[in-house]
Design a protein that fits this description.
- The chain is of the alpha+beta class.
- It folds into two domains: 2-156, Ribosomal Protein S5, domain 2, CATH 3.30.230.10; 162-278, Alpha-Beta Plaits (2-Layer Sandwich), CATH 3.30.70.890.
- It is 32% helix and 28% strand.
- The chain is built from nine helices and eleven strands.
- Strands 1, 2, 3, 4, 5, 6 and 11 form a seven-stranded mixed β-sheet that branches.
- Strand 5 (143-147) and strand 6 (151-154) form a beta hairpin.
- Helix 1 packs parallel to helix 2, helix 2 crosses helix 3 (120-128) and helix 5 (174-184) crosses helix 7 (216-222).
- The longest helix is centred in the middle third of the chain and has 16 residues, at 98-113.
- The radius of gyration is 19 Å and the shape is globular.
Length: 290
């Protein structure tokens, strides 16, 4: 079984509070994009993980993919194993949800391979214990996510946008970004309703002020290159440029594939970590034949 596990962008991100257990309450718009990791699942008596990655990522039992597989084993009581191969392309510490996407893909893939019969709702509940974004990746599509990630409102959308993603050489720790956010007490947030309207209507440029990520100002302080990249994308024709998640990746939305490709030709020479991609509805693509 081969699975393409796609990344995501945050169109908006607002922090609405903190629970007693320390989890942040969020309100945000997220959508999958075509940048992907590849996961291959094969039948085996034992669970094993082989990694191929240009980035430093956790290996063995510490990898979120293995944690997802172990969790599904424990919750269903299955005695099956699997040989898992993970080929990383989604940048790490980027705010694009690569680890969560991989975990969601393994939960769905092994649910099929092992015939454990769980519904997507069941998998979303399991996934939430692995990470706040995992339920979103199990569901897929443009969605408004709130709570700690467990409340998902699907927003079917037929429009797709060309994107250029840039990342500084260094990533950002999510914990460090949230800590800095609370120290600065940033309060100016997005308008999710207007942002939704813009995405649906194609008025991203006209309503660009509606798209905000409250973590971006503090992330720019921690990593000034984020601000430089946002400015570079805007200068090269992006109708919207902003940071995704807690960073450090930023993305630019372009009016056409041609304008996006022209921007990539210029900016990829300056920023080696650059990727062309598009928004889409699918959070993963599962092919059951190798």
């Amino acid at each position: 079984m081969v699975i393409d596990a796609f990344a995501k962008i945050n169109w908006t991100l607002m922090i609405t509070g903190i629970r007693e257990d320390g989890y942040h309450l969020l309100d945000m718009l997220m959508q999958p994009v075509s940048l992907r990791d590849k996961i291959i699942l094969g039948r085996s008596d034992e669970l094993s993980l082989t990694l191929e990655s240009p980035y430093p990522v956790a290996s063995g039992e510490n990898n979120l993919v293995m944690k997802a597989a172990r969790l599904l084993q424990q919750k269903t009581g299955t005695r099956f194993g699997a040989a898992i191969r993970l080929e990383k392309s989604i940048p790490v510490q980027a705010g694009m949800g690569g680890g969560s996407s991989d975990a969601a893909a393994v939960l769905k893939g092994l649910n099929i391979l092992w015939h454990t019969g769980l519904s997507d709702d069941d998998l979303e509940i399991l996934g939430l214990s692995l990470g706040a974004d995992v339920p979103f990746f199990i569901r897929g599509g443009l969605a408004r996510s709130s709570g700690i990630g467990e409340k998902l409102e699907p927003l079917p959308c037929s429009r797709f946008y060309p994107l250029l993603v840039l990342q500084p050489e260094s990533g950002l720790s999510t914990g460090a970004v949230f800590k800095a956010y609370h120290e600065k007490e940033c309060t100016v947030g997005p308008s999710n309703e207007l942002a939704q309207q813009a995405i649906f209507s194609g008025q991203v440029a006209e309503l660009s002020a509606s798209f905000k990520n409250v973590l971006e100002p503090v992330s720019r302080t921690l990593c000034p290159e984020i601000g430089q990249m946002v400015e570079s994308l805007s200068r090269c024709g992006a109708c919207l440029a902003m940071m995704t998640g807690s960073g450090s990746a930023v993305f630019g939305v372009f009016p056409s594939l041609a304008s996006r490709d022209a921007a990539w030709q210029e900016l990829s020479a300056v920023y080696p970590r650059s990727w062309k991609c598009e928004t889409q509805n699918e959070s993963m693509l599962i092919r059951e034949d190798l």
